[in-house]
């Protein structure tokens, strides 16, 4: 179990780098990446959403030290990511195909995050069986 737990921790650490980096970039630079001129209000909203993205990534990182007992937090964070992915999927249907980076984000949101959540649940269940404790 310990080997698989470490592999899960490494995987989550790597994948959570995406929202941390993208969120931090968005907070610091706004929509500069797109090159589009937007209103001050749209820019403010973009930075707010980037801050949420940064926070989600940091919260995923916060599960790493005791990932085997952080099931509730992990599931909540995954739910937030999946809801965001559903929003992106609806946008794809309404407005068309976005950039490859956005398609990549969609895959992480609707496939990778749920798979990591299932994996975390597996590790939590193994931990509970081995040590006779329930999730915290």
From TrEMBL:
Keywords: Membrane, Transmembrane, Transmembrane helix. The chain crosses the membrane at residues 12-33, 45-64, 76-94, 100-119. The keyword Disulfide bond does not apply. InterPro entries: DUF4345. It comes from the Bacteria. This is DUF4345 domain-containing protein. It comes from Microvirga tunisiensis.
């Amino acid at each position: 179990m310990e080997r698989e737990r470490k592999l899960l921790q490494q995987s989550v650490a790597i994948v959570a780098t995406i929202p941390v980096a993208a969120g931090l970039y968005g907070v610091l630079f706004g929509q500069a990446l797109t090159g589009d001129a937007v209103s001050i209000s749209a820019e403010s909203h973009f930075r707010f959403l980037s801050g949420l993205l940064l926070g989600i990534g940091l919260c995923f990182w916060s599960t790493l030290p005791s990932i085997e007992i952080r099931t509730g937090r992990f599931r909540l964070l995954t739910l937030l990511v999946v809801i965001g992915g559903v929003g992106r999927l609806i946008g794809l249907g309404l407005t068309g195909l976005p950039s490859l980076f956005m398609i990549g984000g969609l895959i992480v949101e609707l496939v990778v995050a749920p798979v990591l959540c299932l994996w975390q649940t597996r590790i939590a269940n193994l931990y509970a069986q081995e040590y006779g404790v329930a999730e915290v």
